[in-house]
Amino acid sequence: MSTIEITSLNAKYREKIIEIITDGFANYPMMQYFFGDSHKQSVRYLSKFICDEEPEDDKLQLIGAFVEGNLQGIAYISLPQNEDNNHDIETTPTPLEQRFVELIGEKAFTRVEKYINLKKANQISSPHFYINTFAVNPQNQGKGIGSAILSHIHQMSEQHSDSQGVALDTQTQQNVDYYQRFGYSISNTVELENVNNWFMFRANER
User: Which residues pair with 71 in a beta bridge?
Assistant: First the structure.
């Protein structure tokens, strides 16, 4: 079995990251809700936005799984924040955000905002890691890559002085079953315009 290495990602891997996210979310329910018939091209725009957004080291991190030197999976995670910091959020759109709106259109952007607000409304109250985006190269799924990424994030949470666990959301029953195998439980289920959203949490084992 090939060794899977998990590490932080930088701009060097931008095109491969975009490819993995675009392929991994092809025909995904939430992407179809966001973008309708143009979801395949718009998912690529979203992938570029994730790559080009400048993450603050203490808030967001992009990690990847390498197999034999090739990037095969990614996770875009939010790190635990103090409650005081959570309210101190910049509301003025950045030039990158404005460009993203222009590319996907106001209607799609409004739907993205509805989803973001839904996530905020279903946040776990205690400090935690949040998996915003999680994708594995479809051609290499079922080979332990996703498991390795999740295990790494769980370890990050266990070692963090404030974190109480890891949270995420998903939009398919198949994914719910997958995450439950790793100790996640459903904290809430909410429908957003005919799209089911399962909010899940895995408490630290320490």
Answer: 66
Token representation of residue 177: 């079953």
| Per-residue confidence in pLDDT tens, the chain, 206 aa | 579 999 999 888 999 999 999 899 888 999 888 888 766 778 888 888 877 776 655 688 999 999 999 999 999 999 997 554 444 444 455 666 677 778 888 888 899 899 999 999 999 999 999 999 999 999 999 999 999 999 999 999 999 999 999 999 999 999 999 999 999 999 999 999 999 999 999 999 87
Cα atoms found within 13 Å of the Cα of residue 181, Cβ hemisphere only: 9
pTM of the prediction? Answer: 0.89
Distance of CA 186 to the CA centre of its chain: 17
Q: Indicate the SS3 state at residue 81.
A: coil
Range list of H helices, 54-172: 83-86, 95-104, 106-121, 145-159
> How far is it, in rounded angstroms, from Cα 152 to Cα 156?
6
Instruction: Give the chain's end-to-end CA distance (angstroms, integer).
Output: 29
User: No. of H helices and E strands in the chain?
Assistant: 8, 7
Q: What angle do CA 116, 22, 44 make, to 5 degrees?
A: 75
| Alpha-carbon distances of 163 from 10, 41, 80, rounded to whole Å | 25, 36, 6
Calculate the CA 81 to chain-centre distance.
Answer: 17
